[in-house]
Fold these 2 entries.
Entry 1:
Amino acid sequence: MVEGRTHRPVIHATKCHSCDVCLRGCPAEFIQEYRTEEESLRGTLYRGKLAFQKSQDKIPLPPCQQACPIHQDARGYVALIAKGKFKEALDLVREVNPLPAVCGFICHHPCEEACLREDVDHSVPIRLLKRFIAEYGRERKEVKKGSKKKKQTILVVGSGPAGLACANDLCLMGFKVTIFEALPVLGGMLRVGIPEFRLPREVLQMEIEAIRELGVEMKTDHFFRFDGNGRTLKRSGFDAIFLSMGAHRSSTLNVPGESLRGIFPGVEFLREINLGKQVETGKKVAVIGGGNVAIDVARSALRLGAKKVDLYYRRSKKEMPAIPEEVDEAIREGVNIHFLTAPVRMIGKNGKVVGMECIRMRLGEPDEKGRRKPIPIQGSNFKVDAEMIIAAVGQKVDPKPLKGLDMNPDGTIRVDSKTGQTNLKGVFAGGDMVTGPGWAIDAIASGKKAAKSIEEYLK
Ligand SMILES: Cc1cc2nc3c(=O)[nH]c(=O)nc-3n(C[C@H](O)[C@H](O)[C@H](O)COP(=O)(O)OP(=O)(O)OC[C@H]3O[C@@H](n4cnc5c(N)ncnc54)[C@H](O)[C@@H]3O)c2cc1C
Ligand code: SF4
């Protein structure tokens, strides 16, 4: 909220909702934007002078910017798009986001949940606008170049969004950066998890190439492991390491019959498809789970030619961790979702799965994470037929290559919450291997944070 006469406007920092109306409305362009690069904090400049109600007041970040894990200035680029300033909008997005087109396609957009326009009609489609601006910039050559001014070399393990973001920022800071990727392809779960129909491969490749062009060296088919005695960093020849190896091991259902032929873990099923391997589903497919992986598996099975795809989830639609739009898409495409249902055993014939026995559930009290606990309804068991069953019930970090690193009880890597450093000096970690399976934009944020910590450490 701004008050005052022509030449002395005053911002009430506590009342300001950062709606931008004053910036856009001032005919003399007297009020201008001001941003500090380090913190992405915004204030407002009056003819070169920061003028808040009190000098120590800070104008709060707009809710959308606050909600975005990398504090992307959504309001800023949406306003620039509205003015037709597409190049400027793209530059603003790229200032903090090394994978804008990827986010434009698959970000779970917490910014839109926070958008105040929701109170009027519906939130601004911030993610779609980012996609639009990234598409506009497809032909525009990346202008930034890493300077490689600094002598120190950094190894980034894993080429998912956390690794790519960390490598991008470190390269721009002037370090020499090399990525080791175990798989023959780059991109992590963006490439071998998320199906192509949701994230076109040329979009991902374009953004990876832009990071490579900065000067980041990328080596595929390079598996990295710790030897367990803490000397790995010294032996590696690098000055610091950022680990971003994701959570690629599938959790199991823990029901009898799980080792029958025809039962697959969700991430492995998607990896096979994404690596171009031939996958036969049969006509009837059952999918178990309620997250993005389960939804992507079910939609992929339909595309592979399955005639009937049934998805079983033990809670209700409200509790599903998958992105709601993707759930609706799956239903529109013909996936039958059975809520409040869980498998109790797999049924086989001659060693091959032919179906499963399920039980109906009801929701009890909320658990420690606030989600209502599913409780089996005794005597409600029933059987279903299936030629293939795919379990997408969670992922874990593979501990095998991580000897010597402290882990949390859930198998994720323990790091200092401020710096992202592990128990080993000079070794940092981020992304899914620290948080457990999460979101791409959180992985990007953790990679960016680690880049800053590594710079600090190497000083
Ligand atoms: C099916 C599916 C759908 C999803 N949908 C969405 C979505 O719509 N929106 C969203 O925001 N998020 C989504 N996610 C989540 C998102 O993809 C992840 O949170 C994100 O990719 C995690 O990034 P990361 O960099 O931590 O790890 P990853 O992307 O998992 O990358 C880790 C990389 O490290 C490599 N690696 C592992 N071990 C080694 C080793 N020893 N040496 C060398 N390299 C190694 C792996 O091969 C991999 O390439 C989805 C995930 C899946 C599986
Ligand atoms: S990166 Fe995601 S959360 Fe951030 S502004 Fe873009 S769509 Fe919103």
Note: DSSP finds 16 helices and 23 strands in the chain.
Entry 2:
Amino acid sequence: MNEIQYTKTIKTVIETDVLVIGGGTAGFGAAIAAARNGAKTLLIERLSILGGMATAGLVGPFMTCYDNDAEEQLVKGIFDELCLRTEARGGAIHPSKVEGMTSYSSYYMASHRHVTPYQSEILAVVMEEMLEESGTQILFNVQVTDCITKDEKIDYVIVNMKEGIAAIRAKLYIDCTGDADVAYFAGVPTWLGKKETGIMQPTSLFFEVGNIDRDKYLGELEANKSNLDNHVANCFAKYVKEAKANGDWTLDRNELGNYEQNIPGRWKINTTRIAHIDATKTSDITKALIEGRRQVQEVIAFMKKYLPGCENVQLIQVATALGVRETRHIVGKYELTAEDILSRKHFDDAICTFGYAIDVHNSTGGGVTFTCVDKYYTIPYRCLIPKNCDNMLVAGRSICGSSEAAASYRVMPACIAMGQAAGTAAAISLKSGVCPENVDIVNLRNTLIEQGAVIKD
Ligand SMILES: Cc1cc2nc3c(=O)[nH]c(=O)nc-3n(C[C@H](O)[C@H](O)[C@H](O)COP(=O)(O)OP(=O)(O)OC[C@H]3O[C@@H](n4cnc5c(N)ncnc54)[C@H](O)[C@@H]3O)c2cc1C
């Protein structure tokens, strides 16, 4: 590709204390926590809606926020407020009321007890309300495209706005882009997918369907659930097999992930699979979206032809954002590994607790490897602190952790909890006049616990 030089005076410069980049689940938690703890906070989001994967990606339900034995709720704080408020609005069912092996959990059991079904449209509104109440300023359609750095600090981020190119200067930045875009632009070292190979987990495009004969459909699911073991639900395996034999199913997956929402008869379908995609590249994202939409049509035709109760199934909507499980991981002060998670390693600087399984989607064919954790594990604060940048924190799926570890903590309750920790740390950092790395960890943990977070040993 040819190179050009381009010089321009930027006339729009916005200033704030804390800039949160990315309004997904991590950014939502981070901005509310920073604002509630006294920092002037601006949240920018490149799309026109909050929620990231939870809304534009139509991903759902919130995966379990309980321990692996489904006994104790481990993610509370801002996450629980969001669930309760969305439920009060008729847009969710609180996780305490949702069991595994039901239509809400796609008849899975392990790590699928106490999931949170929600309606993306209502969730987005509740997120906006909570952010505005916290005093956070929100700006949509703002995308970070570069950083100006000085002495291992970000001086400005460069953004695209409707007005053109602009700059935003903050005292502290929290990268919640999922892809670690800001960290990458700031020169923080990162790696893609599995460190040794660069292979990333496959992408998927979620969609929603309705107009199903619910009794007939549920009857079929219920009739087939007795064949399941504790980990893998595949109630429609026989139909997928038949469709494959007839050439009606070309997807690299043998199951239909179907999660009923709080509106009876409305389902989120997690089944398409587009592998070998690098979602930090525009051309790859485009290719995956086009192939994903094609696969949606194939799955709808499959449902109509093969699944009892789906004779008149209708497509309600297809996600506008590609479902990206994995891209960049930052190099931070500590790399969380699968061994840490499975051995429940103790961390003095733990900032949240989580219990979802290590759920690795095969990148080179169908299937998943699903490894349950021993009750729960914790995430250390150091995973949120990038190398070579003193005024930034990272929260969400791109923190410093191995590909396998991320296959657990990437799910949304953990992202909100990490966001809450990052936002709280940012506010404390500003108040105490030290960089995020030197924040008093006892103070941070106590503040998080006072504000509802669960941090176990
Ligand atoms: C197919 C699939 C199925 C999944 N299933 C589940 C599930 O059932 N339950 C569950 O809990 N989790 C599930 N997950 C995981 C979960 O959805 C994501 O890992 C999680 O939402 C990541 O949250 P995040 O806040 O880190 O990133 P995101 O939700 O991706 O949010 C990042 C936000 O940053 C914005 N952004 C990105 N770059 C920029 C930029 N340069 N400038 C400005 N804004 C930017 C994006 O538009 C987005 O809004 C699934 C994920 C996928 C892909």
Note: The two ends are 52 Å apart (CA to CA).
